[in-house]
Here is the input.
Amino acid sequence: MESYLQSLDDGWSIYLWLVVGGLIIIAVVYWIRWGMKNEQFDEDIKYLVFDEGDREKMTPQEFAKSCEVKAAQMQSRERVLMRQQQEKKQGK
Here is the structure.
């Protein structure tokens, strides 16, 4: 393999880097698309770490937002689990 690489003309490595760069860009676009389809880009995710014990540490608006985000996240979870069950049944 080394002798083959040595026999190549100068400047061949740039094409290798271009191919690798293209593959990286394709992979990044794929994973961003996957993240968007699977609701991974949610700025309200920070509210999921709070619970009832944090009520006195938060303003009433923040606590209400936390409860709202938790309810929406649970609905999303139910929806995803139902979809996975349906896909599993169809796969059999």
User: Anything to note?
Assistant: The radius of gyration is 24 Å. The CA atoms of residues 16 and 22 lie 10 Å apart.
